[in-house]
Amino acid sequence: MAAKPKNYNRRVIDSRGAHFRIVSGDPLVGSTGAEVCKVYAVNDNDDSFLISHSQGGLSRIAAEKTLEVRAGDKNTPTLLILELVLLMEMSLLLLLTDLLESTLKIL
Question: Which domain holds residue 79?
Answer without folding.
Answer: 69-107
